[in-house]
Design a protein that fits this description.
By secondary structure, this protein is α+β, with helices and mostly antiparallel strands. It contains 3 helices and 3 strands.
Length: 98
Amino acid sequence: MNVKPVTLAGEHVRLEPFSTEHASDLWAVGGNHPELFQYLPFPVTSEEHIAEFVKVAIGLAQSGAGVGFVQTSVADNEEWPTVKKKLLGFMESKKSQP
């Protein structure tokens, strides 16, 4: 089966195929939250690890073997930088809760 990357958008969430541009944003959002990566089959402890993960996901998509997605919000038709800021704020608020 040959799987082609597509963007899927619903009322609240958009799934975008991984691109190399997502790596630094994923690290910015999740770098201080190792629990976000606990179910991956390898450690993610640096931006370089995220970049490698994204590179593998892109390679799978290019080979037709699968497609990895980044989930973003579509609330108010927000663009990724706005979503990233909100995610960072949410993750920081979670850190301060007991």
